[in-house]
Amino acid sequence: MNKAIFMIIELIAIVLGILAIIKFVSDKEILVGFISLSFGVLAIIWSFIALNSLSKGTSSRDYVMFFLIGMVFLFLFSLWHVLVRTNKWESRLIYPEYIFISIAYLIFVMASFRVYKFSKEFGFKEKTKEIRKQLKK
Predict the structure, then answer these.
(1) Run means of pLDDT, 10 residues per run, the chain, 137 residues
(2) pTM of the predicted model, to two decimals?
(3) Is residue 65 within 8 Å of residue 89, measured between CB atoms?
(4) Would you say 31 and 86 are in contact if contact means Cβ atoms under 8 Å apart?
């Protein structure tokens, strides 16, 4: 019961935060940027909580770490994008955006490759036909 109440309070806080952002920001692009940033902060917080709850030295902790680092760079990209649009810095200061998003993609590629290797090691794709045959018997 406490979890349900906590989730309702979280949902109300998120909705109120979004409504506050909508009320105070008139530019639609900046509005979407602030909403994206708020979801980015939430994703980083939950990833950090997940990271701390996993055992050290496990592969799942490594995957969450990659995800968390990628989320941080994605957040930095979004933050810089909002700062550029808010302060009208559209000259050379746009390049950090590309750096942040490129690093985020590279980290997600590395994480995806590790998940791919994990699936090759522990996957059952090759055995599915045999399993289906056994289940039909």
Answers:
(1) 80 85 81 86 90 87 91 94 83 84 94 83 66 70
(2) 0.71
(3) no
(4) no
